Amino acid sequence: MKYDPIKDRLGDLASRHPLLQRLLFGLLNLLFLRAWYVRREVRRLLGACPGDRPARVLDAGTGFGQYAYFVARTFPDAQVRAVDVKREYLERARAFVDQTPQADRVDWAIDDLTALQSEGPFDLILAVDVMEHIPDDEAVFEHFERVLRPGGHVIINTPSDQGGSDVQDEGDESFIGEHVREGYGRAELADKLRAAGLEPVRGLYTYGPYGAAAWRGLIKWPMQMLGATWASLLALPFYYAAALPLGLLLNATDVKRDNARGTGLFMVARRPPTPESRNGGSGGP
User: Fold this and answer.
1) Domain Methyltransferase: where (predicted)?
2) How far, in Å, CA of 119 to CA of 188, rounded?
3) Cα-based distances in Å from 279 to 69, 148, 181, 195, 257
């Protein structure tokens, strides 16, 4: 299934009014289990940043811009750089954020993560559902290491190799046709990060049995409905009125469990701190 055309059309509809954009961001944060993990970790990491300077955050592959907006809104001193290779995504996101009090704390730029031009140092990098779209992932990780402040972190959310992208059996096609890989194994991703000079801090399997069930009910089936006919958009409010309570309960259960397996992989890594940064120095290059 080609997911991007549906996503692009939803983004275009939402961009027609700021209230629709806020609604879209709210739904993305509510329905997608990945957002529950990402937002929790962002709060934890940025909440622990030194208070003597603004935290700098790189939203690598910002898409709709919901995470850049979340960071800027939640952390009033944070400075966010949001990059993507798609100009239309950046233009829509900028048009919305420019109408908010966070406008002067988010800057937007076209940037290819495999040849990253954005200059650090950053305290935090977000790469949420990005790496499965990029063949040369090792180059991206090397750039992340280069622009991270010593002691800074990167959050990566991606499908796993345990049924990620809804691939259950050998020969199955990804539910999302734009993916260049089905997913990562936890050890595989950790090894690639280490090879780039990054230190894995923790890796969690997400979308375990409860989260995977929520994904099917809250995301997969509605997307299939929209892929079949956009007239189903009129029926989705009624569908979600029935499906949302159970779906949110399943999401909440997944977040609280230690999943032995899961179709998603959530990993946090850091650039090792220098002796100066351990002793309270700036740690910048």
Assistant:
1) 57-152
2) 28
3) 32, 18, 41, 26, 36
Give the domain CATH number at 96.
3.40.50.150
Residue 206 lies in a domain: yes
**In a domain? residue 268:** yes
In contact, 154 and 144? CB cutoff 8 Å: yes
**Residue 80 phi, psi (nearest 5):** -120, 135
Burial (CB < 10 A; 0-12, 13-18, 19+), residue 147, is buried
Question: 177 is written with which tokens?
Answer: 């046709």
Q: With contact defined as beta carbons under 8 Å apart, do 178 and 3 qualify?
A: yes
Report strand pairing: 79-84 vs 56-60.
parallel
Enter the tokens of residue 109: 């730029």
Residue 283 pLDDT: 39
Position 188 in a domain? yes
Q: pTM of the full predicted structure?
A: 0.90
Q: Distance (Å, rounded) from C-alpha 82 to C-alpha 18? A: 19
Query: Which residue matches tokens 């309960």?
Result: 249
**pLDDT value at position 4?**
78
Residues 6+ apart with CB under 8 A from 169: none
Q: Using a pLDDT cut of 90, give the percent of the chain over it.
A: 84
Is the pLDDT reported for residue 215 higher than 90? yes
Number of domains in the chain: 1
146-189 pLDDT, tens digit per residue, is 999 999 999 999 999 998 645 444 544 444 556 678 899 999 99
Residue 285 lies in a domain: no
Alpha helices in 106-235 (DSSP H): 137-147, 186-195, 209-215, 221-228
